[in-house]
Amino acid sequence: MTTRTPPGVRAETHAGTEPTPSARWTGPLYAGLGMALVGSQVAVSGVLADAPLFAVQAVRYTLAALVLLVVLRCTGRSVPVPRGREWAWLAGVALTGLVLFNVGVVRGVAHAEPAVIGVAVAAVPILLALVGPLLGRTRPTPVVVVAAVVVTLGAVLVTGGGHSDATGLGYALLTLLCEAGFTLLAVPVLRRLGPYGVSLHAVWIAAVALWALSLATEGPDAVLTLRAEHVPATLHLALSVTVVAFLLWYTAVGRIGPGRAGLFTGVVPVASAVGSVLLGGPVPGPVVWAGVGVVVVGVVLGAQPTGRGSRPRRRRASSHPSSPRSASGSPKTPGDPPGRLAIRRARPRTSWVTTSSGR
């Protein structure tokens, strides 16, 4: 079977290697919007606390997969078919970032305030800042790591008044690890499959797993027990938190990398607090607003360009006309076409989203 890579995929992944001026602001914008939608999930998940967990999530991801297929058809995009070990990475994204993550969120809010689960997700920047660059065969950027710590501290201030029992804390830890896996396990395949490909394959794999879990643990009639108040929450999860948020997030990761994109998970507890107020909770106090300010400082700090030291050095070709060597370091032969040196020099180096398993 022959597949073609959508033009948008190449533009985004090359931008992840050498960000264009537009990518430097669209990447953070998409990351912030995507995480705001994830924060709204923590708030509305309380409505689903008494609903059959696996059935609701199976319906959610089934609807999301269908919507993504419609979007791809209407926009004329084609999704690359995964091959080899790419299936294992996508299964990891689906099972950790989607299936287990939602178990932690939905069950966690039954034992803890929504903001407690939100702050667990907001601790993800530290993991992404440290582990994300290693997947791209580069070193963690000190400024981004410091910014990640600042963002996490701000998130703790935002959710400092939350209450939880031991079970709730366990679910919070589960959401932390699974949220990190949602991004890190997608890195090896994001370059070739792109945001649409990763999102589509991850959601249909999750849907299959969740339908199997629902049938095995909740029974075939579980989906029929959903009440009227569950329908809007499920639609919100399927359309806003899955289709829109996933595309925004993976596009941002492809443009600015997992470390910097991870800083915007600090938006999650802020959105969670706002969602709690909209659902009838108390208005945040001064400490919460101070935490919001700290999160903003951390995001701004980490979003600053790091300069030449943060990127791999490239060998520059000599501009002297008599130079006998090409930009790639190999001897120049008389048969070389005039544009050969420029083509070699412009070819992008290995992107941070390329690993040995992703080729």
How many separate domains? 1
Low-confidence stretches: 1-18, 308-359
**Helix segment tally:** 13
What is the count of β-strands? 0
Mean pLDDT over all positions = 77
Task: Give the N-terminus to C-terminus distance in angstroms.
Answer: 18 Å
Structural class: mainly alpha
Listing every helix as H and every strand as E from the N terminus to the C terminus, the arrangement reads: HHHHHHHHHHHHH
The helical percent reads 55-70%
Your description of this structure?
This protein has 359 residues and is mainly alpha-helical. The protein has one domain (52-304). The protein has 13 helices and no strands. Helix 9 (187-217) packs antiparallel against helix 10 (230-262). The longest helix is centred in the last third of the chain and has 33 residues, at 230-262. It is globular.
